[in-house]
Amino acid sequence: MSPFIAEVLGTMILLLLGNGVVANALLSETKGNNGGFLFINIGWGIAVFAGVLIAGPISGAHLNPAVTIGLAVAGKFSWSLVGSYIAAQMIGAALGALLVWISYYNHYHNTEDGEIKVHTFCNRPAIPNHLMNTITELIGTFVLVFTVLYMAEPSFQADGIENAVVGLGSIGALPVALIVIGIGASLGGPTGYAINPARDLAPRIMHAILPMGSKGTSDWGYSWVPVVGPILGGVLAAVLFTALS
Prior knowledge:
245 residues, Glycerol uptake facilitator protein, 64% helix, 0% strand
């Protein structure tokens, strides 16, 4: 499997499970209706775990343009691959949103509130203020990328063995998942914590395209916030990491 396909599949699973838990919590007549914000945070953490588990060994499991750009700024990823990784992430996010729509097709049509449907695709701020919403997304993404940059596999040295490395296997995806749950619980209140341009923009496009009865507006006036804020946060994390290294 190529890194491009790995990023597509990893991001697809990320959005399928991530937006899926939001749909389960918000849409009418689901088994998880009114599951609450912690329910959603945990679901997103597991979504990250699954996405990283699938793509990690092949692409590094960026699954997020802010992470890709941040790693490139920090000198840990080739700029020549940034465009293809972001394209893969956008495709995967769109496919994941499509699969959520298919999975909850009846519930989308049985849900009368269009505003609720929008939330299952993309982010809407609790209190609209584009400047402060952008800063919130910047801070959340800074935490994500800064901590990712400091993650390292454990290693040991032993007599007669050179360059020995002990891997964590599938458990290596767990730290990122826990960080995402923590960001959601601590900083997710103002904006719903996109912290990922592809996670918001591609599903927002799918919301505009897919039929689901009365679905409300896709709110394109806000759409730049979950793109610009996370990218700035990723770059700031990379610059600080490089300065401290």
